[in-house]
């Protein structure tokens, strides 16, 4: 009989990581962040449990996209009222709320259930280089989203 592996609670240590989004590709960065939030980079990964870490993203206003996505990628939101659909392009949203771009990209890569909502609370995104999480002593990690970049 096979049993599902459940890591003991005392072995799950959650760390804080700091990611600099300046000049990074949006989708590739979001994939790496989602894997860290989910805990897929750890040997004790369990699909139905929160074994992931906290991620702080700084410089969200300097994120890059390729091709014509700057003018053609559309973000939609709905107020819930009839005719309440609002749309704006990547460039407009980046000028208004740059944090939301990274948040939406990562949220789309997490599970669509209560676990995904719980994991999403562990993502902290900031437009500039400053963040209020110095007390957690985040470990800076370098994510390579551009091939050939050093």
From TrEMBL:
The keyword Ribosomal protein applies. One of its GO terms (molecular function) is structural constituent of ribosome. GO terms for cellular component: cytosolic large ribosomal subunit. PROSITE patterns: RIBOSOMAL_L13. InterPro entries: Ribosomal_uL13, Ribosomal_uL13_bac-type, Ribosomal_uL13_CS, Ribosomal_uL13_sf. Pfam families: Ribosomal_L13. Keywords: Ribonucleoprotein, Ribosomal protein. It comes from the Bacteria. One of its GO terms (biological process) is translation. Part of the 50S ribosomal subunit. This protein is one of the early assembly proteins of the 50S ribosomal subunit, although it is not seen to bind rRNA by itself. It is important during the early stages of 50S assembly. PANTHER family: LARGE RIBOSOMAL SUBUNIT PROTEIN UL13M, RIBOSOMAL PROTEIN L13. Belongs to the universal ribosomal protein uL13 family. This is Large ribosomal subunit protein uL13. It comes from Chroococcidiopsis cubana SAG 39.79. The lineage of its organism: Bacteria, Bacillati, Cyanobacteriota, Cyanophyceae, Chroococcidiopsidales. The gene is rplM.
């Amino acid at each position: 009989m096979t049993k599902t592996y459940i890591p003991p609670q005392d072995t799950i240590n959650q760390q804080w990581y700091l990611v600099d989004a300046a000049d990074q590709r949006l989708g590739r960065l979001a994939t790496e962040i989602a894997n860290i939030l989910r805990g897929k980079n750890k040997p004790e990964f369990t699909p139905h449990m929160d074994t992931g870490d906290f991620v702080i993203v700084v410089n969200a206003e300097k994120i890059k996209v390729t091709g014509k996505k700057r003018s053609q990628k559309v973000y939609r939101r709905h107020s819930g009222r009839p005719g309440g659909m609002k749309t704006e392009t990547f460039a407009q949203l980046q000028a208004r709320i740059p944090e939301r771009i990274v948040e939406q990209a990562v949220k789309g890569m997490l599970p669509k259930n209560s676990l995904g909502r719980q994991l999403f609370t562990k993502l902290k995104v900031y437009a500039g280089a400053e963040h209020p999480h110095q007390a957690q002593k985040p470990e800076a990690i370098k994510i390579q989203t551009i091939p050939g970049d050093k």
